[in-house]
Amino acid sequence: MNAKTPHPAIGGNWASLLLPIAADDSIEFDKLAEEIDTLIDAGVDGIYSNGTAGEFHNQTEEEFDRIQEMLAGRCKASSTPYVIGACQPDPSIMFNRVRRAAALDPRAIQVILPDWWPLTNAEAIDFLNRAADAADGIPLILYNPPHAKRVLSPRELGAVCAATPDVIGIKLADGDGLWYAEARQYLAGLSLFVPGHHLATGIKEGVAAGSFSNVACLSPRGAQTWTASMRSDIAAALDLERRICTFMDAHILPFRQEFGYSNAALDKVLSAIGNWGPVGTRLRFPYRSIDPAEAVRLRPIARTELPDLFP
Ligand SMILES: CC(=O)N[C@H]1[C@H]([C@H](O)[C@H](O)CO)O[C@](O)(C(=O)O)C[C@@H]1O
Question: Which residues of this protein are catalytic (predicted)?
Fold first, then answer.
């Protein structure tokens, strides 16, 4: 497929592939296979690898290849859409990952902007166009999280993406009403992916296409049902969003704010609370992991406060 030909739209509820990590820090590939099959069975709109939650920043190139081959093989066999994250702070490693990802024919490839010295807009355009060459016709999704070295405003993103036609979507954090107004003004035509626990708002604001989602970490099946409900009953979906945010603020964010755990640690504890697959809470060294006992403690609370996510 050529990048200038239309691509099938990407949106909805995307589950993050989380890495099961053994006590010796190795990736448990047998569990990873089981996890992928469980996500496919849950009927999510798609699965994506190597986001922050997938610890892309902490794996070897051999591990990268093995993870992506496993994801592509199992998704192809079940016709499940998949996106591969080729993100890496170093551009040359990233271009190589993009090339190898493209050979596996994903729906899209996610990249970040090189992340040591912040890029100017002109440099970002050059980088993304070269990544597009490496992607050989597979569209790109730019991942610009709040912790990136440079966080671009909707206006800046609009200017960069206008000059990078292969970038079809952006995964980013949303903001207040003004942010949504700017997103509508400058980012129309791009598929925007907002944080999972804000997806109903993003849809109501007419801005979000979907989410690479922390709610899917908690319950892939529940997040799918919730996402579908945004088309049929947005008021009910917004009510559940309010309860999800209350749960995250009270029980999940304190792990980061009070104890300094990483976002990936939070996503993994969510999956352990949901208890839907063989992921566990462990992260690779040097990152600290949340005690699995915390997941056991929070499990009944999640089910009481968010029963709709655990049908
Ligand atoms: C709150 C939330 O949904 N977090 C999700 C984020 C955001 O979608 C992204 O940072 C844009 O804000 O993406 C991930 O980190 C990722 O890349 O692995 C998964 C994580 O569950």
Answer: 143, 171
